Amino acid sequence: MKKIYIKYIIICLSIFIMNISTSSSIFNILLYSTIIIPLAVIVGKNTSFISEYIGEKKGGLLSAASGNIPELSMGIWSIKCGMISMAKSALIGAIISNILLVLGVSIFAGGVKYKEQKFNKIVARTNFSMLFIALSTMIIIASLSSFNKMGQHTIAVLSVKVAVVLIFVYILGLVFSLYTHSNLFIVTTGENEENILKKDKNFYKLLFEIIICSLFIYFISESLVLNIKQVVHAYNVSEEFLGIILIPLLGNMGENLSAIICAFQNKINLSLEIAIGSSIQISLFVTPILVIFSYFLNLNMTLLFSPFQIIIAIIAGIMSFFVFQDGKTYWFEGVVLISTYIIVTLAYYYIA
């Protein structure tokens, strides 16, 4: 009962904080961040509970989608404010954060409690194949731009066309995993056997709370991004470093909690679906949506990323792929992924 009251208190505080704006941009950023985090946590916890009604695959998909709402919201407002480099860095940061930090912490947490955790290799292989499509796209566009000097408008037009293709691939991936070959993604053995509950009033209540919290996150994100822009100009802070660290950490808080809780409960398939599924959504859906959105605003955010951004995204993908190719996870593999994330962020600090 107390937990229910806490959720409603947080929602009421969100309404109050949305209308607060002080003369200090740094204080405003801290204020808006402190309310976005609990809202993201509520969304993450609710989607974890909803998975008991709709199954691990759909639950992981919903958790990834709701967890990416802060990134999408802050991406939209960043583009509107002309902070294209921060928006692009935030997308790369979200991808590497999910497949290195979130997965790493989840595997470590689950590995501490369980000596070995097994998962569905078909799910992991399908997810990584979709993720590598997005990484391949980044390499192709960067190579094309390097070998054939094209104007910004040409790259923008090409990016929009490729974005449409990526969204189409993402939709077909959903059709494959949820409908035509859904039997391949069902866990039916051992302790991981799924017991799907019938939908009741609690299910719709959880769904309603997710929608409400998501709306608050969207509108608070506007104020957060506007204040970040002021700090960038006033203190000469790097947009890219803020994008790759701050926004993913704020946006992934709910996902982090959901994935860790699931791994700790030995629901490793759901934990992987949340983390890897989130990276897939960022790369195949959120990024293309933002590219198309910026094109119609004539701001031209493209799919052309810097060489270093491409390298760290590829390293993150390869490291996580090697960890999950055998269908088993151990706590030390989590340490490897977390260490890789720390090294990448330290390196980015000096680049940015």
UniProtKB/TrEMBL annotation:
Residues 28-178, 210-347 form the Sodium/calcium exchanger membrane region domain. This is Ca(2+)/H(+) antiporter. The keyword Ion transport applies. Belongs to the Ca(2+):cation antiporter (CaCA) (TC 2.A.19) family. Its main location: membrane. Keywords: Antiport, Calcium, Calcium transport, Ion transport, Membrane, Transmembrane, Transmembrane helix, Transport. It is a multi-pass membrane protein. Ca(+)/H(+) antiporter that extrudes calcium in exchange for external protons. Pfam families: Na_Ca_ex (PF01699). It is found in: Endomembrane system. InterPro entries: CaH_exchang, CAX-like, NaCa_Exmemb, NCX_ion-bd_dom_sf. It comes from the Bacteria. The chain crosses the membrane at residues 5-23, 29-47, 91-110, 122-144, 156-181, 202-221, 241-264, 276-297, 303-324, 331-351.
